[in-house]
Amino acid sequence: MILEPAPTVAQLLAFYLEAGVDCAVMDEPVDRLLDEDIGLPARAEAAPTRSPLTGMPAAAPRPAPTKTEVAPDVAVAAARDAVRTAPTLEALRAIMETFEGCALKGTATRLVFADGNPTARVMLVGEAPGRDEDIEGLPFVGRSGKLLDLMLKAIGLDRTTVYIANVIPWRPPGNRTPTPQETQICLPFIQRQIELVDPDILVTLGNPSTQTLLQTRDGIMKSRGRWVDYDTGTRKICAVATFHPAYLLRSPSYKRMAWIDFRSIAVALEAASGKTT
Ligand code: URA
Question: I want to staple 218 with a disulfide (CB 3.0 to 4.6 A). Which of 73, 175, 223, 233 is the partner?
Fold first, then answer.
């Protein structure tokens, strides 16, 4: 049998990048070759099993987390309790900065709270920050954000006239889909954020944000462009779903339907101002 030479570090990094791994999830690197980390007998006796995929020593189990993990239902209750006392967006942000109930906070670089005008009449909500948002601390600043800006511009809006946030305010590692538990833990935050901004029009971008906030199980093809009431508990806000800009980048043929949705947002905004076109 001819053994392949072990890959170089550069080849391995290229492999991980290709596979979508673009961030480290722990503060300190773990030396998985150390005996105490992988729980093997003394190094001399340890058989170096190699991964067939990378040729590197097979991954050891992750060390136990150092932080106390909070049970999801306790974290949801803690988030709900915390937001009740938030009288302003600044107070809400401060509460979220110190909240320890969501594990995503530990892997994200920073909180991505919001961008835009807190007194705007239109609020848009996406799913979760990606890599660029995690670096800058602002929602929708990457490629999909650039497309969102163009779509807003087409109906005469920009970040001075809209407010933008996400259901999940911390980037999931490697942009993975947030778990239902993570979504439930973060839900009270975005609900309170919507209540405090109190827009006339709420726009959910993509399936996850639509299903979470507008309480529907329909897919985006069915739910988009359909006006519904979003109940903050104190008032009803006109809400509509449309495609996520990242989806439009992958499937540009749906931009035509997105344009119809954005036109209807412009019309609703004018109607809410008492203007006619
Ligand atoms: N996708 C989202 O849903 N939100 C962002 O902020 C960026 C990309």
Answer: 223
Question: Is 25 within the bounds of a domain?
Answer: no
Question: Phi/psi of residue 249, each to 5°?
Answer: -65, -35
Question: Which residues are registered as beta bridge partners of 203?
Answer: 124, 240
Structure pTM? 0.78
Expressed in angstroms and rounded, the spacing between residue 4 Cα and the centre of ligand 1 is 41
Which of helix, strand or coil describes residue 45? helix
Q: What range defines the domain where residue 234 resides? A: 72-276
Residue 12 in any domain: the answer is: no
**Is the pLDDT assigned to residue 192 strictly greater than 90?**
yes
CATH classification at residue 147 = 3.40.470.10
Q: Compute, in angstroms, the gap from residue 70 CA to the centroid of ligand 1.
A: 26
The predicted-structure confidence for 243-277, as pLDDT tens digits, reads as follows 999 999 999 999 999 999 999 999 999 998 885 44
Closest atom of ligand 1 to 112 CA is 6
Token pair recorded at residue 54: 């990378």
Domain count, the chain: 1
**Domain assignment of residue 53, yes or no:** no
Is residue 216 over pLDDT 50?
yes
Whole-number pLDDT of residue 97: 97
DSSP summary character for residue 257: H
